Amino acid sequence: MQGHKHFTDKASPQFRLSERVPRYNLYHRLRELLDWDFLYHETQLLYGATGRPSLDPVVFFKLLLVGRLENIISDRRLVGQCALRLDILYFLGYEVDEDLPWHSTISRTRQRYPTALFERLFDWVFAQCVAQGLVAGERQAIDSAPVKANASLDSLQEKRPAGETAPGLSVVGKPVEALAPAAVRSAPAHQLRREAARQAKRQQTPDHLGARHAQARLVSNKTHYSPTDPEARISVKPGKARALNYLCSLAVDTGHGLITHVQADLADSRDSLHLPRLLTGLQQRLRTHELTLRDLLADAGYANGSNYALLERQRITAWIPVFGQYKPVVEGFTYDVGTDSFTCPAAKTLSFKHYEISADGGWVKLYSAAYADCKQCARKPTCIAKAKCKRLTRTIYDAAYQRAWQRQQSRRGQYLRRVRQSTVEPVFGTLLHHYGLRRLNPRGLASAHKTMLLTALAYNLKKLLTHRPQRTQQLAVALPLPRLPTADQPWAQAA
């Protein structure tokens, strides 16, 4: 006999939410694992003694955590999803017939809570992971990736010369001056003139097909800014279109792949410039738990002489590949460490003269040969056609570069390169595709940092839930007591 199910929408008095959520459920396990009551003490000074009751701080952070775990970016969609899930309602502490907070309340609360509160929550979860043995601390892998900001390239505005403003210009009913600070809206006049000349030249230059694009719009961080999100920066990732982004920098422990540090940076600067601040935060967090950092793994984007020297001063081995214009050996020249000089193929000495600043702002050492030596040299037409004497420049961090290059060529360096690729890069892929970090809905660098902290926190919590500590079996063996020598048996030996 064929059955037919008939639905009757009726109120059921015999219903307990805790009985409908199985114990193996993710949010049931999270509810039992963590005690969030410390957040009441952390946020107590942020509220007054009178007025209407605010959104519960524990409920607020649980809602944000659910958004990361469910890969939901929008606050409006997050509230709608939570209302349909019994396990999430049980995790939040809401009944089925109880209204959830309004989505705008979540957005306003996120803006008003300081970044330090999100940092303390991340440290609190990190401490739980350290207690479970998920962090070794000795070897860390770092990397960075751009994260799309909540702003479009179509909203870009041209910067004005310093001291000038754009009268009457407004965005979403607000004047530009209220959305973007003066340091973002203006730029030096000479810089704008130089960029305008470059743009005019590129528009008149034909492309590889011979066509000229006179109407092409060339934008850069030097000439344009976003009034929607003034702190977002234009950046380009190889193989992808230009967009307004923030930069997410991560440090991952190579032991169990746990995130040990995360920070938000401006996307228009090199990765190597952010390593000192990243290292400071990472070192502080590890030292709090009595962990020592010994090896730092990174890609070639962090290669910098000052970074090598910084890590060596702190007794940290830098496994960062050397790249760029640096050459470990000057072809045809030999270096003498004792005299700090080079010898050219014609056996002439190039001695150290003084320090200089290179075109990119770095300090270099200048080595120069004597004018008389080069004047009489037979190699002068091919070596230096117009100069008076041969000159060489080497970075002041040449010794640190040499040591990094030797580590890079070693077998251990090749092995640790594969370790870095298999540790931090999969973590980034997971955060971007499964934890809602593909796009930042809040605006501003501080809000971006809060979102990245919550994303890393959710990832670490998942690691903590799935961790199964290894149990070692101990076996005790009882040995017989040794036989002591006696008067009648002085030859007795211990058994």
From TrEMBL:
Disordered: annotated segments: 184-211
Domain of life: Bacteria
A Pfam family per the record: DUF772
Transposase DDE domain: residues covered: 343-465
Lineage, highest ranks first: Bacteria, Pseudomonadati, Bacteroidota, Cytophagia, Cytophagales
Start and end residues of each Transposase InsH N-terminal domain: 16-112
Annotated InterPro entries: IS1182_transpos, Tnp_DDE_dom, Transposase_InsH_N
PANTHER family recorded: TRANSPOSASE (PTHR33408), TRANSPOSASE DDE DOMAIN-CONTAINING PROTEIN (PTHR33408:SF4)
Protein name as annotated: Transposase IS4 family protein
Cross-referenced NCBIfam families: transpos_IS1182
